[in-house]
Amino acid sequence: MKTFKLSIILLVLLGVISCKKTDGNSAANTVTTDQAADIAAGSLAANSYGLTTVSDDIAVNAQTLASINTGSQTVNSLGIATVHQACGTTLTDSITNSGTNSSVSFSYFLKFARTLNCNTNSQPDNLANNVSYHGNFDGPNLTSTNTGSAIFTIAGLTTTAANFVVNGEYKRTGSFQSKVGNKTSGQSNVDIVVTNLTLTKPARKIAGGSATIVITGSTTKNGDFSYTGTLVFNEDGTATLTINGNAYTINLVTGVRLKR
What we know:
Elements: H1 2-28, H2 33-44, H3 51-63, E1 65-67, E2 73-74, E3 83-84, E4 90-101, E5 104-118, E6 124-138, E7 142-155, E8 163-178, E9 185-200, E10 206-219, E11 224-233, E12 238-243, E13 246-251, E14 257-259
Parallel strand pairs: 1-3
Antiparallel strand pairs: 1-2, 4-5, 5-6, 6-7, 7-8, 8-9, 9-10, 10-11, 11-12, 12-13, 13-14
């Protein structure tokens, strides 16, 4: 009888130890909110060719736009426009860029298709942009290889508009390797829906706007992860990310994130 009771106790103890080991391994591969913030920062920052760069690129296109329907008059341009686009037409171009900026090395290829929509006076009103891209970056906190797309409409092309205003959706998916915390790796998907991202004219400086962000994926060894948060774009070149009750300040140039 004593032997039987002892065997039961030993089995229970072994089960507890086994559970603790399993829980520990699972925790070691969980994406923390800090790591989710790093993934978000990589999808936003200019030096990792994130949303900030894409929005600036489409603003440059808008800034140098001229329409043959207005006698090739330059619209919101700092110089002579080299592209003369007609109302209702779609033009395509591409950009390849690589280099190192603020401790981040990057390499990206982007394709743009932009359709010019004019107002009732046949004057340029907004550009509907369809963007696809692929590339990689290697930063202090995160390394990522990814592909993605953006569907952005930029308004404010008329000469009387004080600012450009961007609305649309930006997506990024790919592999990642965290360099902080438990240094987990895996696959991630980022979806950012932008509302009224305001860019000043002619400097194209971010002056406001907001977005929702969803970050999902899976780690290499254990399970899926999912985070939903909000973004507020500030006038000082940063964005405030709030995710799972944690607030972060993200530098939109360098991608550095600071927990508040």
